[in-house]
Structure formats: structure tokens, C-alpha cells
Amino acid sequence: MILPNVERPMSKPTLFQKFIRYYPRWICLSACIGLLCGLASAIFLIALERTTEVREHNPWLLFLMPLGGIIVGCAYHFWGRSVEGGNNLLIDQFHDPKTVIPFRMAPLVLLGTIVTHFFGGSAGREGTAVQMGGSIADQFTHIFKIDRADRRTLLMAGMAGGFGSVFGVPFAGTIFGIEVLAIGRIQFWGVVECAVSAFVAHFVTLACGVHHTAYVHPVVTSFSTLDGVYIVLTGIACGLAARLFVLFVDTISRVSKSIIKLLPLRAAAGGVILSSVYYLFPVVIRYSGLGVPLIVSSLKAPLPIYDWFGKLTMTALTLGTGFKGGEVTPLLFVGSTLGNALSNVFPIALPILASVGFVAVFAGAANTPFACTVMAMELFGPNIWFFGALACFASYAISGHHGIYHTQRVHIPENRYASRTLDMLTLLFHRPKLDDSLYRKEKSNL
């Protein structure tokens, strides 16, 4: 009897076979992205340091901010309309991939940030590094014919590389790349690529001679329930400060756009306001630029209790009127000085309160409590982890869904603020599908 020739069904590839096929390629891609992100961050940080030195030796540049507004506004009006969304554009392209992000985002945001700091604007550097990383990574879409699903991994790796290298926190950069994209869910399927990119970028930046700020490591010798209550209250205060910052930036941006439609004129008007404030109230000059020296001071000795609000207001005026730069370093300033001020109220050591405030305001504004907890451990030592986690999650729970990244998708209903942290832990290890139905929430939920 002759049996018919029936094809045997192909066996499914094993997990090891999938690993061999997938990860060598993506580790190489992520390493290349990290290399380029590290070089870009090194160039940016060195240029920013030189720019800050020039401005500090020539304080009269503060009164030329209208000229800086015209330069930044014209650059984005004529060449950068398609990339003006910044970090929000990167997150939006992750959720709804349409077109490759133009490479000109990188030089434009670098130029805009340098000009902003040269004339004394109160802005940060994270946004610049993340945007450069995302735009650089997205260029690999053309080179290697990356499909829509895998393009998301490229963007995650680019954002992780930019964040990890600009602050010198590769572990936090890894978590940031997979946490910042959605509220209430971490995309663990890109953790290897983000880790490779973040660590390579970090070491490349160091190899280029960049030295990151060294912060004081607070001494944590004991912990009591009452200490935990004080730390949670500090986190709540930080979450409220994060909400206030977002409210100020959004309100100033909306009002300025309704009054002055043309970006160069709007930024020039913002420059006039900022220069006038510097002239009328010389004390606010301390809030120009990054403000890293004051952050370092806030971890060591008492500062004026109004410093956090002054920095918050000046940064909102700078970014809301069209100048470029990140929000994170100003938020770190706001948090550390707010914690410094709260040391007058709570019987917790000043360095501890300033350290947890440093990360908690950012955690609430960016909806990234895990990344900020890891960031606290990298910058202030592993002993701070419990205090940092308490403050970050308290800030995250009270700050609301609407943060500095407006295009984040919400995976937890708006009316469940009280259970956000529990829901976050429940969804932590959920693995979503890599297709276009990954996120179905509309921006109207924000």
C-alpha cells in the first residue's frame, strides 16, 4: 500500500531559535543608536557648558532675550514646523506611526536650546537629548527597511539613549524609554534594546570627556512609620507642584498663541517679558539657565523657601512663549528646592527631603515613577530607594494624567486616581501585541 505524500507541518521555532534570530540584529542596531546618541549628547553637553560660561561672564546677555526669541522662532517657523512637537511628536509617532521623523529635529533642537541658554532662558536639557536620540534612531527606519511595529522599538531605544547619556543614568534611561510612552503600563518587550542603547550612549558620552554632576549621597540610617508619612506628604506636595507647572506652561502657551500667532514674534515677546523681569527683579537671575549649582546647594544647606516657585514660574514663561529646551532639569530644581523648603516643616534630614523631592516632581509631571525611583538610586545611592519610591509614587498618584508629555496614552480610567499605583503594579508585566491596535485610547481621554 502506497501512502500519499503528505507534507509535515513545520515545527514552531523554539524560544532559543527566536532569540538567535532576533536579538543579534537588534543588539547591533541598539548599539549603533547608542553610539550616535552618546556622541550627540556629548557635543550638546560640551556646547551647553561653554554657552553657560559665556553667559555667566556676560550678564548683559540676559537683556537680549528678545533677539534669542527671534532666532529660535525663525528657525522653527521656516524649517521646523514639522518637528515643533518635540518629545510629544516622538511619543505620538510611537503610538501611531505615519512618517519618519525628519533628521533636522536634532540640529534644530540643539540650536534652539543653546540659543535659549545663551541668552539666559530657564530651560533644561533632557528634551533636547531625547529628541536628538529619537530623530537619530528613526533614520534607521529608511536604512534597514524597518516595519511599523519594529519602528517603535527604534524610537524607544533612541529615547532611552538620549535620556541615559545626558544625565549619566543608564539604568533610569532604560526604564524611562519603556515607561514614558503610556500611563499605567510598561512595555517590557523593548527593555533589552533600551538597555543596550542607554549603556552604550552613557559610556560613549563619558569617553568624550563629559563629566556629570556628582550629588551628595544622603545618609539613611533608620526608618519609622512616621518617617514614611512625612515622605508621602513630601511626595504629595511634589505632585501638586508638578500639576502647577503643567498648568502654568499650558496656560501661558495657550494665551500667547491666541494673542500672537507668529512664532518668531511670540518668542520675541516672551524674551521682552523675561528680560524685563530680570531687570526689575534681579533676584530671579538665579533661576536663569539650568540652575545646577543651586540644585547642588539645596542638598547641603537651607535655601530661600520661594526658590522652587521662582524656578517654576521662569521656566513656564520660557517654554510657554516658544523658547526651546527640556523640562526635566527645571523640574529637578523645583523638586530639590521644594524638599529643601519642607525641611523647615518635617523632622527629616534636609539632604533626604531634597533628594526625594529632586525625583518626585519629575515623576509626577512625566508619569514615570519607576524610572525616577531608579534615577534616585543612581544619583543618591541605593540606600535612598525606599524613600524615593514612596515619594515618586505619591507624586504620581496625586499629579493626574495630564503631564508634560501630552501624547502619552492612558491605560487607566480617569476616575481611578486613588488606585493608580495598584493598577500600575497589576499591569506591570502585561505584554502587548506589536500591532497597530496596541493602543486604542484617544487623546480625548487625557
Low-confidence regions: 5-11, 413-446
Q: Mind telling me the CATH class of the largest domain?
A: Mainly Alpha
Overall number of structural domains: 2
Helix tally?
18
- Can you write the helix and strand succession as a string? HHHHHHHHEHHHHHHHHHEH
Tell me how many strands there are. Answer: 2
End-to-end separation: 69 Å
Structural class: mainly alpha
Biggest β-sheet strands, sense, barrel: 2 strands, parallel
Mean pLDDT: 83
Strand order of the largest sheet: 1-2
Overall helicity: 55-70%
Summarize the structure in words.
By secondary structure, the chain is mostly helical. It has 2 domains: 22-207, Clc chloride channel, CATH 1.10.3080; 225-426, Clc chloride channel (Orthogonal Bundle), CATH 1.10.3080. The protein contains 18 helices and 2 strands. It has helices at residues 15-57, 65-79, 87-95, 105-118, 126-138, 140-143, 148-167, 170-179, 191-207, 225-259, 263-280, 292-298, 307-320, 328-342, 350-366, 369-380, 385-399, 420-426; strands at 182-183, 409-410. Strands 1-2 form a two-stranded parallel sheet. Helix 1 (15-57) packs across helix 7, helix 13 (307-320) packs antiparallel against helix 14 (328-342) and helix 15 packs antiparallel against helix 16 (369-380).
